[in-house]
Each structure stands twice: as C-alpha cells, then as structure tokens.
Design brief:
With 315 residues, the chain is α/β, with parallel strands linked by helices. 46% of the residues lie in helices and 18% in strands. Strands 5-2-1-6-7-8-11-12 form an eight-stranded mixed β-sheet. Helix 4 links the parallel strand 7 and strand 8. The longest helix is centred in the middle third of the chain and has 22 residues.
C-alpha cells in the first residue's frame, strides 16, 4: 500500500519508518523544512530504546508531488487537522482512507468535516518519541505490549478490512500492532493517562514521575481520573476501572517514563500551541453535554489556554 504521513514530526516519522521497514511505500509530509530536508538527504536517524538506526525515507514539505495514496495517516496536532486536510486534497480520491492516530478524544470529528464516515479509521499508540534535531528522533517502545491499536470509525466491512491491513503493515515493519474492533475503548484507555497528566506536567513544569508521586500531584491526578471515568461512563465507554488505571500508572508509567516530559508539556516548554482541546478540554465539553461536573479538568484546560495565549508575556 501507499501511505502518506500527514504530520511527520517525532511520532509521524516513527510510524512512517516502521511502515517503510515493512515494505510499504511511504512519504512523509510536514511543513518543518529542515526536518524534511534532513530526512530526504541523509535518512531518518532513530534511536529506539538506546539503539540508533538510520532509514532512508521520502520526505516533502508540501503534498503536491506525492499523488493519491491508499491511506493517509493524520498526525498533525488536532487544531491543525482541518487546514492540513484541506491543503492535502491531492492525496485523496474516492478510495483513500484516513487514519487518525492523534492524541485525545474525538479526533475523528475534524476528519468528518472533509471525509465520509466510511473512509475514516481510528487508532491509538503506546509509544513515546521526541524530535531531538532535524532528521533525528529518540523513542521508547515496549515491544512486549501492543504498540498500536487500529480500528474503524463506523465499523463498515470495508473500513475494518482496511484497518486490519494497516495493522498488518505496521506489524511487518516491527511494531506490535493489532486490529481492534472496540477501538473507542482503547482510545479512552490511553487518553486517561494523557489527560490526567500531560497538561498538568506542563503547568507545573515537572516530569511525569515527580508529578504523579508528589502528594498534591497525586491528588490532582486521581481527581482528574475520576472525572474522566464519570464522563466515559455517560459516553458509553466500558471497561475503565480506577484501581486498574492507578495500578498501571504505578507499576508501568512511573518506573518506565518517570523522567519523561509528556507531549503537551513539551509543547508548553517550546511555547507552542497544544492539543488541550482534545484532552482536558474534551472532558470539559463532554461533561457539560452529560451534566457531569469536571472542575479539575475545567481548571487545567483554562490554565493551559491562559499560558499558551500569553507565552510572550510570562516571566
């Protein structure tokens, strides 16, 4: 299959490289010119779990010369999805699928403004990656657990078949990838971890481990999670359990990623716009829809907006 990675930063480059390793035709598309030029000329340098490797990749700043693709994987920040898709219409024909692997809740809503529901795939990743220099990324991957879940938005037979094919291509490239018919539950399970700590780490300027283990951080973490679970229940998401989530954070997240600065915190440190509206902001919106109080998520979303709207005025 032919893939375009729309938004080929740290995560997009990583996914594209694994697809290419499996033999798929892949083109990275991202406006970050220095990053694309470095990959196009010297290949993508990936350090995964401390081991460096280089992969030759096609990389462009605009999609004009790419041509129609079988699957476009969307990994731009959520707030840029509509404009990115509008500028990449040349990648699509009536047979093209779009797969969102973006962070957060409701990422498919932006795709629905430009694509039919039966051409939308959804997925979630359990991988960390950081862009350390143009053409260079560092990643942590636990190959013993599922790295990528792929499913479909409306569960049509055609969409589910394509989702299985994408999962197979990622698996051939070395990732532990699975087709997941109940993809919404998998997305929410990952989102709980992101929503409960990503922006809070940025606000407090702390890595994940310190935030999660300090008494006040722990209070905010637990309060945030309980709000998320209350909203998820009203949203029809099954299988989320507070004790299991906390056990996973304590036994897996903190030991493995305790020194990690989450993506939203990285954006705030770099004074970039964040994905807060697909994280705590999404919980606030859904809470209002269902009449569920979400005061902790409301405050975290408001504080993040306040910070990112005033980067140049901060001490």
């Amino acid at each position: 299959m032919k893939y375009a990675i729309l938004g080929a930063g740290a995560m997009g480059s990583l996914i594209g490289a694994h697809l290419a390793k499996g033999g798929a035709e892949v083109v990275l598309v991202d406006p970050f010119e220095a990053h694309m030029k470095a990959i196009a000329s010297d290949g993508l340098t990936m350090t995964i779990n401390g081991t460096p490797q280089v992969h030759q990749m096609k990389a462009v700043t605009v999609p004009d010369a790419v041509g129609v693709c079988d699957v476009v994987i969307v990994l731009v920040k959520g707030l840029y999805t509509k404009s990115a898709l509008e500028g990449a219409k040349c990648l699509f024909d009536e047979h093209t699928f779009a797969l969102t692997l973006q962070n957060g809740i409701g990422t498919e809503e932006n795709l629905l403004t430009v694509l039919p529901a039966d051409k939308i795939l959804k997925g979630v990743m359990h991988i960390t990656s950081k862009l350390t220099a143009p053409g260079t990324i560092e990643s942590m991957i636990n190959y013993e657990r599922v790295n990528v879940h792929v499913g479909s938005f409306n569960k049509s037979a055609e969409a589910e078949a394509k989702a299985r094919e994408v999962a197979g291509d990622l698996g051939t490239g070395g990732l532990n990838a699975v087709f997941d018919q109940e993809i919404e539950a998998a997305i929410w399970a990952k989102a709980v971890n992101n929503i409960s700590s990503n922006a809070a780490c940025g606000i407090t300027r702390l890595p994940l481990g310190i935030y999660c283990t300090h008494p006040d951080g722990r209070f905010l973490l637990e309060s945030c999670i309980r709000e998320i679970l209350a909203v998820a229940e009203c949203h029809g998401v099954k299988g989320l359990d507070f004790d299991n989530i906390m056990r996973f954070i304590e036994e897996h997240t903190i030991p493995r990623f305790g020194t990690h600065l989450p993506s939203t915190a990285q954006d705030m440190k770099a004074r970039k716009k964040t994905e807060i509206d697909a994280l705590n902001g999404a919980i606030s919106r859904l809470g209002k829809r269902y009449g569920v109080p979400t005061p902790v998520n409301d405050v975290i979303a408001a504080m993040t907006h306040l910070i990112e709207d005033n980067y140049e005025k901060q001490f």
